[in-house]
Amino acid sequence: MQSKISVLQIIPQLDVSGASQGCIDIANYLSENNHNSYVITQSGPSIHKIKNYNENVFLLPVDSKNPITMIINIFRIRKLTRELKIDILHVRSRAPAWSCFFVSRLTGVKLISTFHGAYNFTNPLKKFYNSIMLRTDGTIAISNFIMNEVIKKYGNKKNVVRLISRGIDLDFFNPDNIDLNEDNEIYNKFKINNQAIKILLPGRLTGWKGHMLLLKALNIIFENTTLDIEVIFVGPDNNKVLRNSLINFAKQNNFYAKLHLVGSSNEINKFYFNSDIVVSPSTDPEAFGRISVESQAMGKFVIASNHGGSKETIIDGETGYLFDPLNEVDLSNKILKAIEEGKYKSNKVRERCIRNAKDNFSKKKMCIETYEFYKIVLK
Q1: Which residue among 12, 69, 130, 323 is least crowded, i.e. fewest CB within 10 A of its CB?
Q2: pLDDT value at position 121?
Q3: In degrees to the nearest 10, what's the CA dihedral of 369, 160, 115, 15?
Q4: Is 23 buried (19+), middle (13-18) or exposed (0-12) by CB count in 10 A?
């Protein structure tokens, strides 16, 4: 295999999702190590995070599921593949995977996919549509949960399926890199009571992320204790219906003053740093669950739903607690347990959390393993 490779990643959007961050991390790793790295996407607020994005990012409608657009994309992507002398097409979503499948067949360029989700289906046609992610020269599963889902739903395929856990930036998610003088800025800007126990839920405001479930659990605690707790939601909050529902629930139960809806932030590491407990109460299984890993990297005890990727990233009882999914009573009990046992302020727990993240879920580890997989596919 040649020492220098050219990789073209294809992803519908470069937004704040874990799939987007993984794409960005791989793109920059390849560039930093003197490989040719390019990305095709429709758009997204995170495009600028890719090094030399003006030259290395191409905007095409690869988010479209319109069959005609998908067919036209075959020729658009084939043209770029030839012009850029691409060795590997790395696709991260199903619609562009169909286009890239035919590009690969027409050009002989190797095709790799990453399964970022479980991709449920209710009929044979949808299963066939999803299966394009396995009609490749190699497939990456981002967690054991996803690996098992792929095997269970699609059986044994001829291509290679490799587990490569997602990784996070341990420089950004590093409590030692936070300026202590900036602490009060967060508290003052969002009127957060520094003396309260601060519970953080970072993530897009969408139903399955479990924001309402957390509020219901906290309401149980407020009704039965006098604990001073405040809850902070950080993440895109364009879902106005859910946002209003959360606000109304908090008002009806007389704890609206304890609820802080921050919206999107480029300083999520500071919110982790200034929180006491992080909660990831997803009602559906997380494919990987970056919240749990980011929390631990920042030395924070995390409480997460006992399904999906969180079962792999949290050491139950040591770096966090797992609670019964969709069960606000069990969630409230786990929050109380973490408070009563002092998990959220234990230096021993803090060190164990950081060590777990560093040893198993670093961006560097993910990038190296992905590059090694590229080399295997190119042999």
Answers
A1: 69
A2: 81
A3: 50
A4: buried
